[in-house]
Amino acid sequence: MLLAAWSAAAVWFFYAHGWLLYYGDAEAHLNTARRIVDSQTPGYEQIGRIWLPLPHLLMALLARYDRLWRSGLAGSIPSALCFVAAGMFLFGAARRLLDSNLAGAVAATLFALNPNLLYLQSTAMGEPIFFACMMGLLYGTVRFRESQSWIAAAGAGLACSLGALTRYEGWFLVPFAAGWFLLAGGKRRLAGTALFCAMAALGPAWWLAHNWWITGDALDFYRGPGSAMDIQHSLPYPGHGNWRLAWLYFRTAAELCVGPGLAIVGLVGVLAALVKRVFWPVLLLALPGVFYVWSMHSAATPIHVPNLWPNSYYNTRYGLAVLPLLAFASAALVVVAPRRMHAAVAAVLIAGGSAYWLIHPRPESWITWKESQVNSDGRRQWTREAAEFLQPLYVPGSGIITSFGDLTGILREAGIPLRESFTEMNNIPWNATVTRPDLFLWQEWAIVEGGDPVQSGVNRAGRYGIHYRMEKQIFAKGEPVVEIYRRRWGINSAAGARFR
Question: DSSP letters of 451-469?
Fold first, then answer.
């Protein structure tokens, strides 16, 4: 009840300030969920192929309601529920592993008081959902060791599978968790391992099959158009191919995300947990951090922080990966103290772990919020201007051709359903339209970002006597030019539609 009330208060705070969709990724996640139920071609294929599908599926039923979609609350509600679930599972796991209700309360409290996580759990971002899955996996393994229950093994496997459908570091957890079942699972370890692996493999297997079905390449999410590998190309960034820099940038992001107090208390707590021979949760909860350092070094996952070159904000939220580890480890300090001092130690740990946020209570000190604010200034400006221009002029049914992505935020803010738009997510018909506008282009409106395929299609249409006039051009600092075109005249040979 405390976690739910705290989560709801945070959602209300960020909603009241209008910050729910500052993150470009939050806007994109929300609109991806919406297009599953509201599109010219709604349904399964609208799930996409790069971003993992669970967050979008959780949001989709809520995103169909215009008020929840336009406000961003359709993304907040699943994230907030998962934040509560993550805190509950963390409390339960720490309570059982450390044999102390107070230790469980310390772990859950330090986890829940982090303002960077509170901001993310108020948005359509995937981290809170992944934390719920990872904490569910931890709790399932603890319950299996105690009870040898098939339900616990299946629950752990299901949590692992759902985590693998939320974020790609979830895939990294699977072999380690399987190894734990095999080595430390007790008298039913072989059967437990088999059941866990069968459940845990469902998520990755489905995503590989999904990508193969959609594109013909099971690894399209990793190396296809729009993937991290494709976006980054071979561009250098700090940490790529350099373990020392990869560790430095991740460590810096982690400290900015969790605060220096919890960083110190948690690292001391790791030693306490190892002294108490509580090895498995320390290993499991450390794995996402290991994954990010490895990804920075060997894949295409840069992290930029404001106090290291190039002194900017990018993927700083990845530093939150260590928050569950440090919260759990801090709780271990409760049980290494004499029993009569448990309450006092718990109070000191909570105060020390959250002191930085009490001293710096303003959002400017919350790195996840600050990143979303700095990186979205231009996007929010042109989204608002375009929506204010288009909303009073658009007539339902007249159609908008555009690119799915940041431009979709214009439609959300203007309250125009996505089924009124025609984008590359409509697949073959869209490709045909931008290639042969003389045969297929009929939409009255076009929203383009300088030089994109829609602008090329509009320009090509002019050669066939189909004329669009630019009605609005929007400039924002550091952003591509956004242009809104309206069809003035021309006959489309397929549709036979004439616009004057």
Answer: T-HHHHHHHHHHTTT-EEE
DSSP 364-423: GG-HHHHHHHHHHHHHHHHHHHHHHHHTTT--TTS-EE--SSTTHHHHHHHT--GGGEE-
Same domain, 382 and 478: yes
Report the relative pairing of strands 445-449 and 482-489 from DSSP bridges: antiparallel
> In the beta sheet, which residues pair with residue 448?
483
Q: Are residues 352 and 405 in the same domain?
A: no
User: Cα-atom radius of gyration of the chain, to the nearest Å?
Assistant: 25
| Total count of residues recorded for the chain | 500
Tokens (6 digits) for 216: 């013909």
Residues 6+ apart with CB under 8 A from 296: 239, 240, 246, 249, 250, 302, 303
The answer to whether residues 415 and 351 belong to one domain is: no
**Single-letter code of the amino acid located at 222:** Y
pLDDT value for 232:
79
Cross-strand partners of 482? 449, 474
Dihedral angle at the C-alpha atoms of 200, 253, 279, 110, nearest 10 degrees? Answer: -100
Q: Is residue 242 part of a domain?
A: yes
pLDDT tens figures, 48-82: 999 999 999 999 999 999 999 999 999 999 999 99
Say whether both 302 and 414 belong to one domain: no
Are residues 381 and 350 located together in one domain of the fold? no
Residues with Cβ within 8 Å of 247's Cβ and at least 6 positions away in sequence, in order, are 239, 293
pTM score, two decimals? 0.96
390 in the same domain as 348: no
Residue whose token pair is 């729009």? 226
Return d(Cα 239, Cα 31) in angstroms, integer.
32
Task: Supply the angle between the helices 73-98 and 279-298 in degrees, to the nearest 10.
Answer: 130
User: Is 227 in a helix, a strand, or coil?
Assistant: coil
Domain limit, last residue, from 309, 329, 359: 359
Quick one: tokens of 420? Answer: 């009124």
Contact of 409 with 31, CB cutoff 8 Å: yes
Indicate if 336 and 258 belong to the same structural domain: yes
Q: Residue 63: what are its φ and ψ, rounded to 5°?
A: -70, -15
The tokens of 494 are what?
Answer: 């397929």
**332 lies in the same domain as 295:** yes
Q: For residue range 427-477, what is the model confidence (pLDDT) as tens digits?
A: 889 989 988 999 999 999 999 998 899 999 999 999 999 999 999 999 999
Domain count, the chain: 2
- Taking only the tens place, the pLDDT of each residue in 262-320 is 999 999 999 999 999 999 999 999 999 999 999 999 988 999 999 999 999 999 999 99
Specify if 290 maps to a domain: yes
Sign of the Cα pseudo-torsion (448, 454, 459, 461, in order): negative
- Structural domain range at position 390: 376-489
Examine residue 274 and state whether it is found in any structural domain, yes or no.
yes
